[in-house]
């Protein structure tokens, strides 16, 4: 009896020493709701189009459902794997993502659509290397900043290497071209540098120098300049360049407060181009009204809140910067997409995370939040120590 009790207590003690899989249930719940909403809305927005053009009304729905399933499996796997183990894989992931971005430019490998060459084809499936590159860059930045905490203020150590790495990714993305993703990654990079304690004079100087460069890229690109002009007055050419923006706004207007009903959208009947991709929020606004859009935006607000809370819970610098960077990445993409659909920003081919059609987008978005969830189970300490040290 004594031996049995001793053995039982030893087993219990050993089990207690094993780290429990802890996570933020509120953040997980928000991601699950967004992902499930995406599957439903993609089906609603694409069924008529898929039936008429592809002969299968479930074509986009089945792929979005598969992407959501793979994404949630990946989310759980990353949660179990843990963010600290990912630190050892940062360099291989960066090289892989850069190699894929280069491969997109080769004839016969890269796949072009809508005037941009952003996809790689694997059999019947296509994916965007830029989605992988986003996470790889945030991982590298977080790892580098965590290792240089005491030297962040030094330009050649804490600032310049991160700017160079951003430049490498930016050049490859602009070759596709993918101007919007480049801007988002630049914003994430500067946000992380600011949080890490980089000198404001360096940040201000680079941002000030980047403004004329951005202006040059817009002015000397016909389609970018046209998008800006259309953004300023989409009603000037409602049947031409402003057509997509105008139809998007008409969808929001038709939805009113509570919408016309799920599945009853008029805009998806070949009036609004890309209704199930970049402009999925317009269909949400038309079918579910202001209430539906507010719920979607509230879920993204919860994601930001709990993502920053996960950063606060991180026991180390790597986890803290990683949670902030990935939360900023997903939230900025959502902000840009919503602004585009509401004509608050120029139109840009950027997906709404979790909701827009696209297997690569939903899988990588789930992976990003899976990493944040693996950080959210921490006991905190890093931010408190860092704040105390600065004071």
Tally of helical segments: 15
Span of the ends, CA to CA: 58 Å
Please trace the helix and strand order, writing H or E for each element: HHHHHEEEHHHHHHHHHH
Walk across the major sheet and give the strand order. Answer: 1-2-3
Based on secondary structure, the structural category is mainly alpha
Count of spatially separate domains: 1
Number of strands: 3
Cα-atom radius of gyration: 23 Å
Mean pLDDT comes to 88
Largest sheet: 3 strands, antiparallel
Classify the beta-strand content into a percent band. under 5%
Low-confidence stretches: 1-19
Please tell me what the overall shape is. Answer: globular
Question: Helicity range of the residues?
Answer: over 70%
Short description:
The chain has one domain (83-361). Helix content is 70%, strand content 4%. The protein has helices spanning 2-17, 25-54, 59-81, 83-86, 90-103, 129-147, 155-174, 179-196, 200-219, 222-232, 243-255, 280-313, 317-341, 359-376, 382-390, and strands at 110-113, 116-122, 125-127.
Describe the 3D structure.
The protein is mainly α and 391 residues long. The protein has one domain (83-361). The chain is built from 15 helices and three strands. It has helices spanning 2-17, 25-54, 59-81, 83-86, 90-103, 129-147, 155-174, 179-196, 200-219, 222-232, 243-255, 280-313, 317-341, 359-376, 382-390; strands at residues 110-113, 116-122, 125-127. It has a three-stranded antiparallel sheet with strand order 1-2-3. A hairpin with a 2-residue loop joins strand 2 (116-122) and strand 3 (125-127). The protein is globular, with a radius of gyration of 23 Å. The N and C termini lie far apart (58 Å). Residues 1-19 have low confidence and may be disordered.
């Amino acid at each position: 009896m004594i031996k049995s009790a001793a053995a039982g207590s030893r087993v219990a003690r050993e089990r207690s020493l094993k780290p429990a899989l802890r996570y933020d249930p509120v953040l997980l719940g928000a991601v699950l709701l967004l992902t499930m909403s995406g599957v439903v809305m993609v089906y609603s927005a694409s069924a008529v189009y898929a039936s008429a053009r592809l002969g299968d009304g479930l074509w986009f729905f089945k792929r979005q459902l598969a992407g959501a399933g793979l994404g949630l499996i990946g989310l759980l796997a990353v949660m179990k794997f843990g963010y600290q183990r990912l630190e050892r894989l940062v360099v291989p992931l960066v090289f892989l993502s850069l190699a894929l971005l280069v491969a997109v430019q080769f004839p016969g490998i890269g796949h072009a659509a809508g005037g941009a060459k952003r996809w790689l084809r694997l059999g019947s499936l296509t994916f965007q290397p830029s989605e992988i590159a986003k996470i790889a860059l945030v991982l590298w930045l977080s790892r580098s900043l965590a290792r240089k905490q005491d030297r962040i203020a030094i330009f050649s150590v804490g600032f310049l290497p991160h700017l160079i790495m951003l430049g490498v990714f930016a050049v490859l993305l602009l070759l596709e071209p993918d101007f919007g993703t480049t801007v988002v990654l630049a914003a994430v990079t500067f946000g992380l540098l600011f949080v890490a304690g980089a000198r404001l004079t360096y940040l201000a100087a680079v941002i000030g120098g980047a403004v004329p460069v951005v202006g040059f890229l817009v002015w000397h690109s016909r389609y970018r300049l046209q998008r800006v002009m259309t953004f300023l007055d989409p009603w000037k050419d409602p049947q031409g360049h402003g057509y997509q923006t105008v139809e998007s706004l008409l969808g929001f207007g038709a939805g009113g407060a509570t919408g016309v009903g799920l599945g009853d959208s008029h805009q998806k009947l070949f009036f609004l181009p890309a209704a199930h991709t970049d402009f999925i929020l317009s269909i949400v606004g038309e079918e579910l009204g202001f209430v539906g859009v507010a719920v979607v935006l509230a879920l993204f607000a919860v994601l930001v809140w709990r993502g920053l809370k996960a950063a606060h819970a991180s026991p180390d610098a790597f986890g803290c910067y990683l949670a902030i960077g990935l939360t900023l990445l997903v939230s900025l993409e959502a902000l840009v997409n919503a602004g585009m659909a509401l004509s608050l920003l120029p139109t840009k081919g950027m997906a709404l995370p979790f909701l827009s059609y696209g297997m690569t987008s939903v899988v990588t978005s789930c992976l990003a939040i899976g990493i944040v969830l693996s950080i959210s189970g921490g006991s905190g300490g890093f931010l408190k120590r860092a704040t105390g040290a600065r004071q």
